[in-house]
């Protein structure tokens, strides 16, 4: 009552080693993010807020949304 295990095919072997290579690559990337310190330029640079062209008093008010298309509804082509 012995169970025979077939030899892995070429495709299964390539898939197995490809998955192992992908796992090692992911671990290297994770360790790089954790252990490599930031460069000096990134640490010294303060986070700047985006500048607006309008007055600073109006910056707290929400900006109106711009329409995606400047065409009127009448000018749009109807598709049926």
From TrEMBL:
<feature type="compositionally biased region" description="Basic and acidic residues">
    <location>
        <begin position="42"/>
        <end position="51"/>
    </location>
</feature>
<dbReference type="InterPro" id="IPR009621">
    <property type="entry name" value="UPF0239"/>
</dbReference>
<feature type="compositionally biased region" description="Low complexity">
    <location>
        <begin position="52"/>
        <end position="67"/>
    </location>
</feature>
<keyword id="KW-1133">Transmembrane helix</keyword>
<protein>
    <recommendedName>
        <fullName>Protein anon-73B1</fullName>
    </recommendedName>
</protein>
<keyword id="KW-0812">Transmembrane</keyword>
<dbReference type="GO" id="GO:0016020">
    <property type="term" value="C:membrane"/>
</dbReference>
<feature type="transmembrane region" description="Helical">
    <location>
        <begin position="14"/>
        <end position="36"/>
    </location>
</feature>
<dbReference type="Pfam" id="PF06783">
    <property type="entry name" value="UPF0239"/>
</dbReference>
<feature type="compositionally biased region" description="Basic residues">
    <location>
        <begin position="68"/>
        <end position="80"/>
    </location>
</feature>
<comment type="similarity">
    <text>Belongs to the UPF0239 family.</text>
</comment>
<keyword id="KW-0472">Membrane</keyword>
<feature type="region of interest" description="Disordered">
    <location>
        <begin position="40"/>
        <end position="80"/>
    </location>
</feature>
């Amino acid at each position: 009552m012995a169970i025979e295990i077939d030899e892995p095919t070429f495709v299964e072997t390539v898939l197995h080693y490809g998955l192992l290579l992908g796992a090692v690559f992911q671990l290297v990337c994770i360790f790089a993010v954790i252990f490599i310190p930031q460069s000096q330029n990134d640490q010294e640079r303060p986070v700047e807020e985006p500048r607006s062209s309008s007055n600073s008093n109006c910056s707290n008010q929400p900006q109106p949304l711009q329409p995606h298309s400047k065409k009127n509804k009448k000018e749009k082509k109807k598709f049926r």
